[in-house]
Write a structure and sequence with these properties.
This protein is of the alpha+beta class. It has 2 domains: about 5-90 and about 110-190, NADH Oxidase, CATH 3.40.109; about 210-360, no CATH class. About 40% of the residues lie in helices and about 10% in strands. It has 16 helices and 8 strands. It has helices at about 5, 10-30, 40-55, 75, 95-100, 115-135, 155-160, 210, 230-235, 245, 260, 290, 295-300, 310-325, 330-340, 345-365; strands spanning about 35, 80-90, 105-110, 145, 165, 170-175, 180-190, 250-255. The strands form 3 sheets. Strands 1-2-7-4 form a 4-stranded antiparallel sheet, sandwiched between helices. Strand 5 (about 165) and strand 6 (about 170-175) form a beta hairpin. Helix 2 (about 10-30) packs antiparallel against helix 6, helix 14 runs parallel beside helix 16 (about 345-365) and helix 15 (about 330-340) runs antiparallel to helix 16. The model is unreliable at about 1-10 (pLDDT under 50).
C-alpha cells in the first residue's frame, strides 16, 4: 500500500497545516525544537552492525536485540511513515569543571541531577499524540511516543531531521545550542510534509573530545567503545569495574560529561527552562563521603523520581567507593570505608577494599597499621 493510498482522504493542505500546529504544540509543551522526517536508516544500521561486531556494546545485549525493528521503523510501529523528532534542553548549572577539579566532590552527569527525563518527556509527547488525534477524530492513526526507550535509533533520526549532527564524541550536536539536550520521538502513520533541515558535520579537525576522555574510550572519531566509557561503567555495567580503569574515573560516580564540557559548541550553552531538571538534594555539589554515608532508605528517598535510582543502592556504593579511593588521602574517608566494608555485598566489598588500599597508600599507612 502506498503512502498516498493509505491516507488519500487527507489533502496536502490539511497535512501542512497540521505539521505547523504540531510544532506550535511542541513549543508550548516545552520542546525547543520539533522536526518531521521520513527516515532512511540504512547507513545508520550498517554502522550499528559494525559497532556490534566489534563488541563495543559490552554487556548491553539489548543493543543487538529486536532484529531489524531498530531500523525498519514500520516493523516497530505498524504503518509508520514519519518520525516527529524533538529536543529538550536540560543543562541547569555551570559548575561542572569546579566539581570535577575537586577530588573530594562527587561528579554526577548533569542529565541526572533532577527529575527523570523519561517520565517528563514521555508525558509531554503523549500529550502531543493526543492533540494530533484530537485534530483528526475520524482518522485511524498509528502513533507511539518514545524517549530513550525501545529499539529506536534516536540520534540518527534526529540527525536526519536536522536537529544536529552526530559528532566525534558520538553525541548529537546542534550548531546553536551544543549537545546538552534530550531527544524524543513520535512514530506516526501520518504522511506529514518533511522538514528539509540539515546540519552538516562541523567537527572539522577538532579532537578535543577524543583527547579529554579519561579512559580513552574512543578507538576512532565517531566511535565509542562503551566498555571503557565511564557512563557505561557506572550505569549500565552491573559487574565489578575493571581495576585498570578505576583510578582513571576520578570522582565521576554516575556518568561522565567530559566530552561535552570540552566541546567548543557547548560554550555559552543555554540553561534549561524546565524547573524539574534543577539539581535536587545538592547533588550537583556534594562531598563523596556524605553520599557514601547514605543508608539504603536515604538513597531511595533522595533519588525518588531520579534516573540515579535505576542503578540501585549497591552499584551506587560501588561507584562512590571508587570515587573515595581516588579522593585525597583522608583519615575520615579511610575510617568510613573500613566501617562500611564488613556488612557490604561482595560487589561493594571488592571496591571498598580497593579504595582502602588507595587511601592507605596516600596516607602512608602500611598494612595492619591504624590511621592516626
Amino acid at each position: 500500500m502506498s503512502e498516498t493510498d493509505q491516507f488519500d482522504n487527507l489533502d496536502p493542505k490539511t497535512l501542512e497545516d497540521l505539521a505547523q500546529k504540531i510544532k506550535l504544540w511542541g513549543e508550548s509543551l516545552g520542546f525547543q525544537q520539533v522536526a518531521i522526517v521520513k527516515p532512511n536508516l540504512d547507513r545508520a544500521s550498517q554502522r550499528l552492525r559494525l559497532w556490534l561486531d566489534n563488541g563495543y556494546q559490552g554487556s548491553m545485549g539489548w543493543m543487538s536485540a529486536h532484529g531489524d525493528k531498530r531500523y525498519q521503523i514500520d516493523k516497530l510501529v505498524a504503518r509508520t511513515l514519519r518520525v516527529i523528532s524533538v529536543r529538550m534542553d536540560y543543562l541547569a548549572d555551570d559548575n561542572m569543571v569546579a566539581v570535577l577539579k575537586d577530588p573530594n566532590k562527587a561528579y554526577i552527569s548533569r542529565y541526572a541531577l533532577g527529575r527523570d527525563y523519561h517520565k517528563l518527556i514521555r508525558k509531554r509527547l503523549a500529550e502531543l499524540v493526543r492533540k494530533i488525534q484530537h485534530e483528526l477524530p475520524n482518522t485511524e492513526l498509528s502513533q507511539r511516543p518514545f524517549v530513550d526507550s525501545a529499539p529506536v535509533m534516536e540520534k540518527p533520526l534526529a540527525e536526519q531531521a536536522g536537529l544536529g549532527w552526530i559528532g566525534k564524541n558520538s553525541l548529537l550536536i546542534n550548531n546553536k545550542v551544543g549537545s546538552w539536550f534530550f531527544l524524543g520521538e513520535i512514530y506516526t502513520s501520518l504522511q506529514l510534509p518533511e522538514d528539509h533541515l540539515e546540519q552538516p558535520d562541523r567537527c572539522g579537525n577538532c579532537r578535543a573530545c577524543l583527547k579529554v576522555c579519561p579512559t580513552d574510550a574512543f578507538p576512532e572519531p565517531y566511535v565509542l567503545d562503551a566498555r571503557k566509557c565511564i557512563s557505561y561503567l557506572t550505569i549500565e555495567n552491573k559487574e565489578a569495574i575493571p581495576v585498570p580503569l578505576r583510578s582513571l574515573m576520578g570522582n565521576r560516580v554516575f556518568g561522565c560529561d567530559d566530552c561535552q564540557i570540552i566541546c567548543p559548541w557547548n560554550r555559552g550553552a543555554a540553561k534549561t527552562k524546565e524547573m524539574d531538571f534543577s539539581p535536587r538534594h545538592n547533588l550537583d555539589n556534594s562531598e563523596l563521603l556524605s553520599l557514601f554515608k547514605w543508608n539504603e532508605s536515604e538513597f531511595l528517598t533522595k533519588t525518588e523520581g531520579s534516573p540515579i535510582r535505576r542503578i540501585g543502592y549497591q552499584r551506587w556504593l560501588r561507584n562512590l567507593a571508587v570515587g573515595l579511593g581516588n579522593a585525597e588521602g583522608s583519615a575520615k574517608i579511610l575510617e568510613q570505608l573500613e566501617k562500611t566494608v564488613a556488612g557490604s555485598s561482595a560487589l561493594v566489598k571488592e571496591h571498598i577494599n580497593w579504595a582502602i588500599e588507595q587511601q592507605r597508600q596516600k596516607l602512608g599507612i602500611s598494612a595492619g597499621s591504624k590511621p592516626e
